[in-house]
Description:
Elements: H1 3-29, H2 40-50, E1 57-60, E2 69-71, E3 76-79, H3 81-85, H4 89-106, H5 110-138, H6 145-181, H7 187-226
Parallel strand pairs: 1-3
Antiparallel strand pairs: 2-3
Helix pairs in contact: 1-7, 2-4, 4-6, 4-7, 5-6, 6-7
Amino acid sequence: xxxxxxxxxxxxxxxxxxxxxxxxxxxxxxxxxxxxxxxxxxxxxxxxxxxxxxxxxxxxxxxxxxxxxxxxxxxxxxxxxxxxxxxxxxxxxxxxxxxxxxxxxxxxxxxxxxxxxxxxxxxxxxxxxxxxxxxxxxxxxxxxxxxxxxxxxxxxxxxxxxxxxxxxxxxxxxxxxxxxxxxxxxxxxxxxxxxxxxxxxxxxxxxxxxxxxxxxxxxxxxxxxxx
Length: 227
Ligand SMILES: [Zn+2]
């Protein structure tokens, strides 16, 4: 009877826990200075140069905390102020991760091409998926097809999130390898950086699990109406 509410609560709980995990890790590791005293910006620049990516620039992002990303169109690694200027474990981990995306792009890493191909559809689906489902539920008896279209849109979002996972995990493993190979971190710091990056990966996994639970929830609601 109440399965759909449980699914909803579990989905919210999973996302909340993953966000708490990454916030905790970030909070912890942004207070620990790395032994070489390197800032995120320095690490990003040096790893880019080591990989012949002199055409990629490193800039401060003004979109606030954890807005760090690689812009493949402008060829820019944008780092939030804390990551850019500070010389913490968190700064160099996140900076190296974003450079990992730039290296993926240069090497035409398979999942990134697939992810970019899915991106426009995923944008439409995430903007209009829920409203389609609400309309679909309202008009379920006259035209059930609307609800099924809404469910398909959520599945497109889930597919995008699924493809995002290997992209993110791969960027993090590249980051660790680059930090290690360039001797920017000690053995102990390697473990800390890995913990920090792992926590960030959980948010992507949580997003995927949450979307799947939401799809199940909508299917449960629809089946109940079908009876
Ligand atoms: Zn990433």
